[in-house]
């Protein structure tokens, strides 16, 4: 088979969850020499990080804003390159395409009322496009892939889909996330980003589901109880955003306990995880929770949420707390701060848990999906794509 893979953001310099998943999946897929892979990306400034392989071609497709790129430029290229199956990896897909379609629908958070407001303008516009595109695409594509059993059930129920069309393919943890027992490298990253010897680590952003507000309220509660013994290192948020939240809750005294390095490249994250004493991932909603496994693979004890897909990913290898309850989060975090034996138990369980998830297993599951779709492809026709029509 000649398999087309949409990974439009693969060359952007600041990669996040879905970009990392696409990159790691493609790297594992090309280990199977039986098939040929054509990866379609938008031009950007980051170098191509995919392996050189005889069965892999990366095609840069310029094409304006993302909706135009996806709805016109991508299906045109699929026709030109003789693709047999198209896999779109980031929730949305072209409505008209000349071949069978597999869509990875990471989540349907953008369809849930409590997450329709908040976030920055880019996130809000993206959610509007998804709300228009996804219901139409999933009604006609051959398979919907999602990343957890929790999210699979949500998708089936919310979009009223036949269960056999929705497949769980778990994410995994990249090999770069591992225990780094090198004091010099850890000391270097501490010096580079101004990190203390011990700290709590949190990957925040302005998306409401990341629960930054409740994390700050939890720390403030512990501070007022004189139980806050470590500072928090929080990535991907600006000082102005944090100061605004602290002002709302009367928490200016907490500012001195928060370190904001901004964006840190994915290649550096393993060192940050290794340097951290505790990792926090108490999101209000996740379809998987990739950082949970990343921290575990680095030997860092994890506190995560007791809701959505996070217990499915964490198993018994993390401490769970209700992400809507500041009191419960404070109670569980205080346990981690004050009980070294508990941290050691979670460290060992986390290493074993992370080892269960591999990108090669993810790729093998996807290959099974592609083969099933290919076998059924002769039973239906596909809409014409007018590749000469102007953009």
TrEMBL record:
Pfam families of this UniProt entry?
Glyco_transf_4, Glycos_transf_1
> What organism does the record attribute this protein to?
Spirosoma sordidisoli
Q: Which GO terms describe its biological process?
A: lipopolysaccharide biosynthetic process
Domain Glycosyl transferase family as annotated: residue spans: 197-347
Spell out the InterPro entries in the cross-references.
Glyco_trans_1, Glyco_trans_4-like_N
**Sample GO molecular function, one term:** glycosyltransferase activity
Q: What is this protein called?
A: Glycosyltransferase family 1 protein
Q: Start and end of every Glycosyltransferase subfamily 4-like N-terminal domain? A: 17-174
Keywords, A to Z, come to: Transferase
């Amino acid at each position: 088979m000649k398999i087309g893979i949409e990974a439009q953001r693969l060359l952007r310099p600041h990669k996040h969850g879905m970009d990392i998943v696409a990159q790691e999946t493609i790297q594992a897929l090309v280990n199977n020499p039986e098939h040929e892979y054509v990866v379609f990306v938008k031009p950007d400034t980051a170098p191509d990080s995919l392996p050189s392989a005889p069965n892999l071609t990366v095609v840069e497709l310029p094409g304006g804003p993302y909706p135009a790129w996806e709805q016109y430029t991508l299906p045109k290229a699929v026709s030109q390159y003789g693709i047999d199956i198209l896999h779109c990896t980031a929730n949305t897909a072209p409505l008209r395409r000349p071949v069978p379609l597999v869509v990875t629908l990471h989540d349907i958070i953008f369809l849930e009322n409590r997450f329709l407001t908040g976030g920055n303008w880019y996130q809000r516009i993206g959610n509007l496009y998804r709300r228009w595109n996804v219901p139409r695409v999933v009604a006609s594509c051959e398979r919907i892939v999602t990343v957890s059993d929790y999210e699979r059930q949500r998708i089936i129920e919310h979009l009223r889909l036949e269960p056999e069309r929705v497949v769980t393919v778990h994410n995994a943890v990249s090999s770069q996330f591992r225990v780094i027992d090198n004091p010099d490298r850890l000391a270097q990253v501490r010096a580079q980003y101004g990190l203390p010897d011990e700290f709590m680590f949190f990957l925040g952003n302005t998306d409401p589901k990341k629960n930054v507000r409740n994390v700050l309220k939890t720390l403030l509660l512990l501070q007022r109880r004189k139980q806050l013994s470590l500072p928090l290192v929080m990535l991907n948020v600006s000082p102005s955003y944090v100061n605004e939240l602290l002002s709302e809750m009367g928490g200016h005294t907490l500012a001195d306990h928060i370190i904001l390095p901004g964006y840190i490249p994915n290649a550096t994250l393993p060192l940050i995880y290794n340097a951290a004493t505790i990792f926090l991932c108490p999101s209000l909603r996740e379809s998987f929770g990739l950082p949970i496994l990343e921290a575990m693979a680095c030997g860092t004890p994890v506190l995560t949420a007791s809701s959505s897909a996070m217990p499915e990913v964490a198993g018994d290898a993390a401490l769970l707390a209700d992400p809507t309850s500041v009191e419960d989060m404070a109670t569980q975090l205080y346990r981690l701060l004050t009980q070294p034996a508990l941290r050691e138990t979670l460290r060992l369980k986390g290493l074993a848990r992370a080892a269960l998830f591999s990108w090669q297993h993810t790729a093998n599951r996807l290959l099974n999906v592609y083969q099933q779709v290919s076998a059924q492809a002769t039973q239906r026709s596909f809409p014409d794509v007018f590749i000469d029509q102007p953009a």
